[in-house]
């Protein structure tokens, strides 16, 4: 997901049966004010199936936010709401500050490396996560049309040309296969 889409994701956008998220909103800072606005493209509208990792204890970076027991705001927000007391401002968003307010995208970018470290996943910039996902899909031979749908790109060229980084090992393997086709092994 794009950063703004993640921060604009509401509790009412998450469904457990089947596990999917409707990515219809994004959080943007406009003239110093955080606003939840509709997504820009029609390619963002179809529901996004949630991978099994979001329903397990294996996703340390974002627990308890996507765990089934916490998929209801009352369960997840209760301790935070209690700690915030009267300053609690429920926004209906999945990811919020300790007072239930929307998270400023700049603040999210600042604390993202610490959350990645805590989750024991490689630390990369927030804006590189979609490109990394695309590259991982390509490395696992996921068809570009499937990757395009998952990443909600409007054009396949975006998925292939912009978001995909081809590793040197993939290039070497492709050249080796090509060489074998012509009877010349490439070391």
Structure explained in plain terms:
There is one protein chain. With 187 residues, the protein is an alpha+beta fold. It has two domains: 1-123, no CATH class; 127-187, no CATH class. Helix content is 38%, strand content 10%. The chain contains seven helices and five strands, in the order H-E-E-E-E-E-H-H-H-H-H-H. It has helices at 3-7, 73-84, 105-118, 129-139, 144-151, 156-162, 168-181, and strands at 14-15, 20-21, 25-30, 33-38, 48-49. The strands form two sheets. The protein has a three-stranded antiparallel β-sheet, with no helix packed on it. It has a two-stranded antiparallel sheet with strand order 3-4.
Which helices and strands occur, and which strands form pairs?
Blueprint: H1 3-7, E1 14-15, E2 20-21, E3 25-30, E4 33-38, E5 48-49, H2 73-84, H3 105-118, H4 129-139, H5 144-151, H6 156-162, H7 168-181
Antiparallel strand pairs: 1-2, 2-5, 3-4
Helix pairs in contact: 5-6
Computed structural class: alpha+beta
C-alpha termini separation = 39 Å
How would you characterize the largest beta sheet? 3 strands, antiparallel
Residue fraction in strands: 5-15%
List keywords for this structure.
5 strands; 7 helices; two-stranded antiparallel ribbon; 187 residues; three-stranded antiparallel sheet; 2 domains; elongated; alpha+beta
Short description:
This protein is α+β, with helices and mostly antiparallel strands. 38% of the residues lie in helices and 10% in strands. The strands form two sheets. A three-stranded antiparallel beta sheet has the order 1-2-5, with no helix packed on it. Strands 3-4 form a two-stranded antiparallel ribbon.
């Amino acid at each position: 997901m794009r950063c703004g889409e993640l921060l604009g994701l509401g509790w009412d956008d998450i469904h457990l049966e089947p596990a999917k998220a409707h990515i219809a909103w994004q959080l943007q800072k406009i003239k110093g004010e955080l606003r939840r606005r509709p997504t820009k493209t029609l390619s963002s509208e179809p529901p996004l199936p949630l991978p099994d990792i979001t329903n397990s204890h294996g996703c340390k970076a974002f627990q308890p936010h996507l765990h089934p027991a916490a998929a209801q705001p009352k369960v997840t927000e209760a301790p935070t709401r209690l700690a915030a007391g009267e300053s609690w401002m429920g926004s209906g968003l999945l990811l919020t500050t300790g007072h239930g307010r929307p998270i400023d995208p700049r603040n999210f970018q600042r604390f993202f490396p610490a959350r990645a470290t805590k989750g024991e996943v490689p630390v990369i910039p927030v804006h590189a996560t979609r490109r990394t996902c695309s590259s991982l899909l390509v490395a696992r031979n996921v068809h570009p049309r499937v990757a395009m749908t998952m990443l909600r790109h409007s054009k396949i060229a975006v998925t292939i040309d912009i978001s995909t980084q081809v590793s040197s090992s993939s290039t070497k393997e492709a050249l080796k296969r090509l060489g074998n086709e012509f009877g010349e092994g490439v070391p």
